[in-house]
TrEMBL record, chain A:
Domain of life: Bacteria
Spans traversing the lipid bilayer: none
InterPro entries: Adhesion/Biosynth-related, FAS1_dom_sf, FAS1_domain
Protein name: Beta-Ig-H3/fasciclin
Organism in which the protein naturally occurs: Cyanothece sp. (strain PCC 7425 / ATCC 29141)
Sequence ranges assigned to domain FAS1 in this UniProt record: 1-130
SUPFAM superfamilies found in the cross-reference section: FAS1 domain
Automatic annotation (TrEMBL), chain B:
Protein species of origin: Cyanothece sp. (strain PCC 7425 / ATCC 29141)
Matching Pfam families: ChpXY (PF10216)
Name under which the protein is recorded: CO2 hydration protein
Superkingdom, natural source: Bacteria
NCBIfam families reported in the protein's UniProt record: chpXY
């Protein structure tokens, strides 16, 4: 079997993600034993971002890296494991909302291919790039402040 | 879409400072009939506005007059903002912890020439097609002011200048409200304290006049450290506005070219600008005797959206602090909230009619903006109300409309980033979007401390509020 990076390179539909991981210098980390759970946005997911977003982000590797590490959680969680959780904590530090009540949704993205096994973890392919924020309990005080990531 | 009535549609039982009425008590279904949609009509008191947001619009009704005022104010705001961000970076990077900062509003020529990262030929990402150095209208004002060509010090002493105090006040507001996302926690970390102390010592020792103060620094290590944090916030706000100035210049140019024709066009442009700038590094570098001290290095991964833009909107658009001229700070009167999250003195709640009188801080900004009004807006304002006589009040109200539009863009950008597209076919997703929009509007309905009465959202729905 291959590791997470090799699978993404081999699949062909993760060209933007693979390039971004290289620019952010996260290749070695994702080749390490882990294990990791990676929510991998495919090329269509990146194409849904407004024009200029990716282009300007690749000029700031540490900031790009922070967004990419939000797509990775430590540990190996299959869809069945995640169905038991409401949240999983990302390597970036913020929580990621998981909803398996009707399909398999990760924050505001939908998983289009789940449980792809790799040597050092597992990959779930998502249809939208997910971004930090809005992961606190929502109540009447829903505010812009509450949409910033948890400190 | 019919305009929401300017009459309040709910009664407030009694104005008790600090009371905690549940929001449900003031909820009444909207009487306005709604167009057919996948979802049933919203039952929120501001249902009209919810539906407008769901259609890609904003908090402000779309009309040519609104658009003209909004864009005109962006232009009038962008020119002083071009000075604010340059001087804020000068404060953060050069003035730093200067105990006697007599000339802090006199940035060196280097800072007027500082290339904006989002304008000009060598931009990281070109938002404004214009040039990267200070705006020509700004340079003309710095040189001549209202009085004529004089040395800058005389302009300053005659108060013929850009009111830089206003931008410092906003940076202080961000600091006091502890706003800057995860960066806030970093300011208390060992790493920050070590970096800041290294720069503080180098700064004090670099000047023979200040070198003895190193003893003071050793005796009271928190004193200059807190000043360093203040300088960090100056940098953060400077880096935030470095983006907004070219965004506002470009939107004004596009409007002049006829490419922005509606309020939703303007919102879309702003949303796109927010996404482009989202990953911009937020950092704090200090330059002492030509050496750069990285107090917050770019490699920490702090970014524009989370560490500058969202905290700014919360601290400045919603909160700031009570105007000395409108609220009593008397602790027994209980007018000023105990909790910072109840502060509601930002631009979205501000009473604009006393602009120009004592104790109303935004007057500073409105005076700055009044120097740079585009011709079409100036002529329009002079035809209204008392013309030149209440120009600052009219500028303030137009500015309030323009900031309601920026807030709309922030709300739409957050919806796009964290939730679902407006045309998502899944009703569950649309319900989530609606809950988010309604949640944002609830901020204008909270009864604590009369927040709902202070909110100007109903005023800006009308054409008579000017």
């Amino acid at each position: 079997m291959a590791d997470i990076v090799d699978i993404a390179v081999g699949a062909g539909s993760f060209q933007t993600l693979v390039a971004a991981v290289q620019i952010a210098g996260l290749v070695d980390a994702l080749k390490s034993p882990g294990p990791f759970t990676v929510f991998a946005p495919n090329d269509d997911a990146f194409a849904k971002l407004p024009p200029g977003t990716v282009e300007s982000l690749v000029k700031s590797p540490p900031q790009l890296g922070r967004i990419l590490t939000y797509h990775v959680a430590a540990g190996k969680y299959t869809q069945a494991d995640l169905a038991k959780l409401n949240y999983v904590t990302s390597l970036e530090g913020s929580r990621i909302r998981i909803d398996c009540s009707d399909g398999f949704e990760v924050k505001n993205s939908t998983v289009i291919a789940a449980d792809i096994e790799a040597d050092n973890g597992i990959i779930h392919v998502i249809d939208r790039v997910i971004l930090m924020g809005g992961d606190r309990e929502v109540d009447v005080k829903t505010t812009i402040e509450f949409c910033t990531p948890e400190v | 879409m019919t305009a929401t009535s300017s009459k309040p549609f709910y009664r407030i039982p009694r104005r008790v400072p600090g009371s905690q009425f549940p929001v449900s008590e003031i909820y009444k279904p909207s009487p306005t009939p709604q167009p057919a949609n996948i979802l049933p009509p919203s039952r929120h008191p501001y249902a009209d506005i919810v539906h407008r947001l769901e259609a890609g619009g904003g908090l402000l009704p779309d009309s040519p007059e609104n658009l003209m005022r909004v864009i005109g104010m962006y232009k009038a705001y962008a020119v002083p903002m071009d000075f604010y961000w340059r001087d804020l970076l000068y404060l953060g990077e050069r003035v730093f912890i200067d105990p006697l900062p007599f000339f802090k509003y006199f940035p060196t020529q280097e800072y007027f020439d500082l290339p904006n990262h989002y304008a000009g030929d060598n931009a990281d990402y070109r938002i404004w097609r214009g040039w990267e150095k200070a705006h020509p209208e700004l340079m003309e004002f710095i040189e001549k002011g209202e009085t004529g060509k004089l040395p800058r010090l005389f302009h300053h002493l005659w108060h013929d200048r850009i009111n830089m105090e206003f931008s410092e006040d906003l940076a202080r507001s961000m600091m006091w409200h502890r706003m800057s996302g995860p960066l806030e926690a970093f300011l208390d970390s060992e790493e920050y304290i070590t970096n800041a102390n290294r720069a503080i010592e180098a700064y004090l020792l670099s000047n023979p006049l200040y070198a003895p103060l190193i003893v003071l620094h050793k005796a009271f290590p928190q004193m200059f450290l807190e000043q360093a944090r203040m300088a960090t916030y100056m940098s953060i706000l400077g880096l935030f506005w470095e983006i907004m100035a070219p965004v506002f210049f470009e939107i004004s140019d596009l409007y002049d070219e006829g490419k922005i024709q509606t309020i939703p066009d303007a919102i879309n442009f702003l949303v796109n600008g927010i996404f482009i700038a989202a990953g911009r590094p937020i950092y704090h570098h200090v330059y002492i005797k030509g050496k750069c001290y990285e107090i917050i290095p770019k490699s920490k991964g702090f970014m524009w959206l989370y560490e500058a833009a969202l905290p700014y909107v919360e601290a400045v658009f919603y909160r700031t602090s009570p105007f000395r001229g409108t609220k009593s700070y008397n602790a027994e009167a209980g007018e000023v909230p105990e909790k910072q999250e109840d502060f509601h003195y930002g631009i979205l709640y501000a009473d604009k009619f006393p602009v120009g009188t004592a104790g109303i801080p935004p007057t500073l900004l409105h005076q700055d903006m009044s120097h740079f009004l585009p011709q079409y807006l100036r002529e329009h304002l002079l035809r209204n109300c008392r013309g030149e006589g209440d120009l600052l009040v009219q500028v303030g109200i137009s500015f309030q409309r323009s900031m309601y539009t920026v807030t709309s863009a922030v709300i739409q950008a957050l919806r796009a980033a964290l939730l679902y597209p407006l045309d998502d076919p899944n009703p569950k997703h649309l319900v989530a979007n609606r809950a988010f929009f309604e949640g944002q509007l609830n901020r204008f309905l909270r009864p604590q401390y009369g927040i709902n009465e202070a909110s100007r959202i109903l005023n800006v729905q009308t054409t008579t509020y000017k």
